[in-house]
Each structure stands twice: as C-alpha cells, then as structure tokens.
Amino acid sequence: MTTPHKGAPATPSSGRALTATKVLTHAADLFAERGPAATSLRDVAARSGVNQGLIFRHVGNKDQLVGAVLDFLAQELESAREAGVDAAVVENMIERQWKVLARSVLDGYDPGELQGRFPSVSTLVDRFRDCHDSEADARLAVAHTVALGLGWRLFGPFLRAAAGLEDVSEAELKRAVDQQTTRLLTAASDDTT
Which UniProt keywords apply (predicted)? Predict the structure, then answer.
C-alpha cells in the first residue's frame, strides 16, 4: 500500500518506515474511535505529528490508508501471536483490529478490495482444514467462527439483553462461545441432511 521509494529499501529503523508506522498506528486509533469516514487525512496528520503530505507520500490517499491500516493491524496481530506476546495484549489488539474492521465496513469500505492479506483467517483455515470434508467446508467453518467472535465482541451487550443473558457470567459466556467455536472448527460436515 505504500508508494514505491527510489533508492535504498526502507528498513524498520529508517525514517520512512518509522513515519509510516507512526501514521498507521495513529490512523488505526482514530478509525477505531470514530471510523474512517469521520476521520480526515488532516486528522491523521495532526494526531501523528506529521505533515499531511507525508501521508500521501508514504501511504497514499484515503482508500489506500484504510487498506494499509487493515494490513498493518493484521500483520501486527500475527507478529504478536508468533512472538508469544501476553494474551491480554493480544486481546486488546484483536479488539482494536475488529473495531477498525467493523467501522470500515459500516462506512462503506470493502476490506476484500483494500486489505491485501488476512493472516489470522488463513492460519485458522490451515490449522483446521483436515477437520473438514473439503476446502470449502473448512473456509466456511472459519468464516462462521470469525462471525461468531466478531458478533459477540461487537454486539455482546445487545445479545445479552435480547436473549435474556444478563445473569450469565463473563466466564460462562466465554466458555459457551469457546465451545461453539471448537464445534464449528472441528466438526466435519454432516451429510445426513
């Protein structure tokens, strides 16, 4: 999502890479808070402490920024998981990523067109492929699992109230969601229907 740069490639410690990381981090925070539609490039520049022109130079236009943020958050989460980062930190990262994703979709952005990689979903498909009769079944199981998690994460208060689950503890709810997630991911399709 970044524009090509002539000369030496950017390294993590280069000014270009540091600027892009700063911009993407602050854009992600703003998108999580209020969504991309309510966030201007000027807002991102001000929060990042950079000139708005640097955003165009290092990332691109608004659509490119949304895509770059989605890719950045996905990569950040994948790297944290691979590094064994504390589960509470990973949970916060997931929360932020899914808020940005949900707000982006609600604002009319299509992550399928803007985001280049979906490492968490790909990892789940790879991990649970053998539990299903076909590639399509494995992909559907993962999609259903992500939808379940996203639904509870974003609409938990509504779901609790609507289904009369206010007295169910967080631990019980988490256990029930985890059981359904396991069932979805590990159950081969039922050919008896």
Answer: DNA-binding
Mean pLDDT of successive 10-residue segments in the chain (193 residues)?
40 74 97 97 97 91 96 95 94 94 95 90 93 95 95 94 96 95 81 45
Which conformational region is residue 108 in: left (phi greater than 0), alpha (psi within -120 to 50 degrees), or beta?
left
pLDDT at 190: 53
Cα gap 178→120, rounded to integer Å? 17
Question: Can you list the alpha helix ranges (DSSP code H) found in the chain?
Answer: 15-34, 41-48, 52-58, 62-82, 87-106, 111-114, 119-128, 135-162, 170-186
CATH fold of the domain at 19-117: Tetracycline Repressor; domain 2 (1.10.357)
Half-sphere exposure in the Cβ direction for 83 (13 Å, CA): 10
Token pair for 149 = 């998690």
Angstrom distance (rounded) from CA 190 to CA 104: 35
The structural domains of the chain, with segments of one domain joined by +, span 19-117, 124-186
Q: Distance between CA 45 and CA 26 in Å, rounded?
A: 9
| pLDDT given at position 138 | 95
